[in-house]
Design goal:
Layout (H helix, E strand, L loop, with lengths): L13 E7 L7 H11 E10 L7 H20 L5
Parallel strand pairs: 1-2
Amino acid sequence: MADILKWEFPTEQFNVIVSIVIVHHLPLLLLLPNLKAALKPGGQLLILDLVKYENILNRLSDFIAVPLSWIFKRSGTEQL
């Protein structure tokens, strides 16, 4: 077992990185740049996690984020 925040990620090593119900425990500003660097060009980060909506705007952001993600993916401008 390793601490994901301390592990030295290999650069452009993975086609896919999957996280299941853990990301909500971690500081995203530290984690996401490392995951992005570890992905090969065109690689994908798949996250299945828990969400606690604090207000209606948070919930609304999901309805906007999903179609935007599809648009970015189709246009080739997808970013992590």
